[in-house]
Amino acid sequence: MCGIFGWVLAAAKHQNRDTLIGLTDLMSHRGPDASGYWLHQTSDERYQIGFGHRRLSIIDIGGGAQPMATEDGRFNLVFNGEIYNYLELRKELVALGHHFRTDSDTEVLIEAYRAWQLDAVRRLRGMFAFALWDDAEQRLVLARDAFGKKPLFLAEAQGAVLFGSEIEPLVQFPGFSRALDSDAIGHYLLNRYVPGPSTFFQSVKKLQPGHCAVWQNGMLKSTRYYTPPFATTVPDVKDFNSAIRLFEGAFDEAVRIRMRSDAPYGAYLSGGIDSSAVVATMVKHSTEPVRTFSVGFRETGYSELDHARVIAGQFGTIHNDLIVEPSAFMDHWSTAALRRGAPVSEASDIPIFMLSEMASRSVKMVLTGEGADELMGGYPKYRAERWIGLYQWLIPHLLHERLIHPLVRSLPYGMRRAKIVALAAGERDLANRMRVWFGGLSVGESEAMLGRLLSATPPDLFPYSSQIGSSLRRTLFFDQTSWLPDNLLERGDRMMMAGSIEGRMPFMDTVLAGVVARFPDDFLTGGKGGKRVLRAAMDKILPSEIIRRKKIGFRVPIGEWFRGPYREFLRDMLVSETSAVAQMVRGDRLRQLVTEHLDARQNHERLLWSFVNLEIFVRAFRVAS
């Protein structure tokens, strides 16, 4: 796990080594163990290639230094991530006549490209973002893993390209424009995150998940190499017990290959079924006690530490707890926004950052349960989606809009889940319904808040393109192609790496995803709590209280803190004379939201969280409006 940065610059824009070092080292938190830098010119001397690398050493600690060049000088690579099947690929490449100087997955990646060119990425089972210079072809190859677990940001202008694992080095590049993308503000209010390929900066884009991009002769072209199987697979597993066996085999292997490490590792344990399943499987393959790490709060109803301790006790792990205090949370907040390169969309990001700092003192890598809900059908919305078509057939659109919608809007905050289900049920536009599920503002509400019309068309229509099967499968496909890479997986990478620790996610395995896509809807959302196959597979392994307990989710008591220790901070961020956000939106509406929340008349914690983090982001990056 590392941080990569680099460029292709036209001759007139060439930079020196000091610039490359300084910008790369802004990501020293991603790679505190080692660094490397490389400058090169194209054969016609029209362009300069620059590669920078910060390393967190996990595989082949002594021999995997980057940038890595081949002996023949043809290839040079900087790489962030892990190739979990590198041992299998290495064996295959040796049989083809390839030779290796190191035991690293980095060299396997280079030789895989030598053997199979761009088709090599289809063979990689892992998480990665890399830049490879092919001197023979005079081309730069950029790639990002199938689900987007590893980030790769791009800035392209006049034949030049900047790339990096984080946004900060790009916006610090000499002469770089920090202009805000005004459309991104609208997408942020609608979705609570900015969907790719957009970012908050006009000049910065994301290389989308499952994409390769090739720069050659001043042109950059991107192509998709992976589509999540929920969009292409017709369910063919009819027997439930067969589904359990298929899942068990694929999941066991997904966990086992993610335990490949030459450095100490552990697991993040929430006490829910997802992380508990990961820990239970790790214990099977470990000759030593597994180290586990959990985070919680003192506020009643927000902490799952007791459940995590049950699992830790059952499996004999070396367990560590972290209790988050409001003051420590505040101390990490602005740094979290800086590392994220965007407003911190979920309050749970910051405790993960804090937990990662703690865990990095004893391990360098952890396995997590991230992505299980989006793969296995764990959220209540997935079960609701199965009935929305029937609701819309029974209830005419006009009746919903004129009678049911106003009644639902008037429900108290304590019924927020029921409100979201009812609002989503009436939304016939797929893009807008996906937004409703995440609790963002409607188009009308966003336009009223901003005082202008919005372009509500998503930056990328691919997440809405699935035509196979049910509304459930289309929703899962959306989450796997938008919500995960642009929010949850982005959180997983940025917050863990902010604490200098690598996170590996067995549920985000392409082979496992292919298996689960073969299951019919009922095997996913049937039964209480969803994730029916996962629950059945874990039934004889995990305590019944873990398998059957109601899903809580990782929530931070931010609403209570806004009324308590953060009260004046909230006012300063949003209603003071120094507030930038108060100039971006309708100030009177913003003041009303703050007043209603502080007076406990309404709970606006999600919306206020979004606005406070937008303010922190603007201040941290000195964004030009």
UniProtKB/TrEMBL annotation:
One of the record's GO molecular function terms: asparagine synthase (glutamine-hydrolyzing) activity
Gene3D superfamilies, sorted: Glutamine Phosphoribosylpyrophosphate, subunit 1, domain 1, HUPs
Annotated InterPro entries: Asn_synth_AEB, Asn_synthase, ASN_synthetase/amidase, AsnB_N, GATase_2_dom, Ntn_hydrolases_N, Rossmann-like_a/b/a_fold
Protein name: asparagine synthase (glutamine-hydrolyzing)
Top-level EC class as recorded in UniProt: ligase
Site-annotated residues for Important for beta-aspartyl-AMP intermediate formation: 370
Annotated binding of L-glutamine, by residue: 105
GO biological process: asparagine biosynthetic process
Endpoints of the signal sequence: none
CC annotations in GO: cytosol
Record lineage: Bacteria, Pseudomonadati, Pseudomonadota, Alphaproteobacteria, Hyphomicrobiales
Active-site feature positions: 2
Organism: Bradyrhizobium diazoefficiens
Gene for this chain: asnB
Keywords, sorted A to Z: Amino-acid biosynthesis, Asparagine biosynthesis, ATP-binding, Glutamine amidotransferase, Nucleotide-binding
Lineage: superkingdom: Bacteria
Pfam families from the UniProt entry: Asn_synthase, GATase_7
Documented EC number(s): 6.3.5.4
Annotated family: Belongs to the asparagine synthetase family.
Pathway linked to the protein: Amino-acid biosynthesis; L-asparagine biosynthesis; L-asparagine from L-aspartate (L-Gln route): step 1/1
Domain Glutamine amidotransferase type-2 as annotated: residue spans: 2-218
